[in-house]
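Minutes, project check-in
Item: structure for the 124-residue chain
Input as provided by the requester:
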Amino acid sequence: QVQLVESGGGLVQAGGSLRLSCAAAGSIFTINAMGWYRQAPGKQRELVATITSGDHSTVYADSVKGRFTISRDNAKNTVYLQMNSLKPEDTAVYYCYADRVAYYGDTKDPRTSWGQGTQVTVSS
């Protein structure tokens, strides 16, 4: 199995910053795209940012452009989300994901793995 472990959430005042981390570990695997979604109470889960494996190209939700930065360290199988100028509307549970392929002998197992979620709360 491939597990994603998140860290870095918490409570911050509006205008503050937080940095989320998500590390993948487990069976032999390769990772393609990684990224972050978030889900606020009563709302659907939405994509925040994504980053590819090779050229590290990125995509951001319009609501976070210019404030959030996604990055990754392929050697550590880790993706980061630097969140600056936080707003109360950024309050949500943040989930990391990884499009990965696990190898079990001659068998390939491609799927998307998810982290357990980390709470980010921004007070006004």
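Outcome recorded: The CA atoms of residues 97 and 114 lie 4 Å apart.
No further action items on this chain.
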